[in-house]
């Protein structure tokens, strides 16, 4: 499972072996114990990649078999957009902050991690 954490200071990406449903359940239990509000809803998250990326063909092929991953979509001559379907978790108090989680085949998740590691600086996109 891939977990994207969106904050004011950037995006943090983690690869987790935990099933999506289990992580969501644990987050709700924690929120209830703390008396916090937590909202979960289906949605999408997108990021841009360079259009000349060598691994783009592999991502395109994988997207044909992954319901939670769309094929790279050309934005302009320099970039393509990758969109993931998954679940958003947020408190509802801060716009643009929250967790986005999606499940793909392990190969697809690891390829996305590899791509993001090679094309984003650790200052704006932290990857574990």
What does this entry look like structurally?
It is a single chain. The protein is α+β, with helices and mostly antiparallel strands and 128 residues long. It has three helices and seven strands; from the N terminus they run E-E-H-E-H-E-E-E-H-E. Strands 1, 2, 3, 4, 5, 6 and 7 form a seven-stranded mixed β-sheet that branches. Strand 4 (73-74) and strand 5 (79-90) form a beta hairpin. The longest helix is centred in the first third of the chain and has 15 residues, at 20-34. 16% of the residues are buried.
Compact description:
The chain has three helices and seven strands; from the N terminus they run ββαβαβββαβ. It is of the alpha+beta class and 128 residues long.
């Amino acid at each position: 499972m891939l977990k994207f954490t969106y904050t004011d200071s950037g995006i943090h990406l983690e690869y987790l072996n935990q099933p999506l449903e289990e992580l969501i359940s644990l987050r709700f239990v924690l929120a209830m114990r703390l008396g916090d509000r937590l909202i979960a809803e289906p949605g999408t998250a997108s990021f841009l990649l360079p259009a000349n990326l060598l691994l783009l063909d592999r991502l395109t092929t994988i997207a044909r078999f992954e319901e939670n991953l769309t094929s790279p979509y050309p934005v302009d001559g320099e970039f393509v957009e990758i969109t993931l379907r998954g679940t958003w978790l947020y408190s509802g108090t801060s716009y643009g902050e929250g967790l986005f989680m999606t499940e793909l085949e392990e190969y697809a998740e690891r390829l996305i991690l590899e791509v993001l590691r090679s094309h984003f600086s650790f200052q704006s996109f932290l990857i574990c």
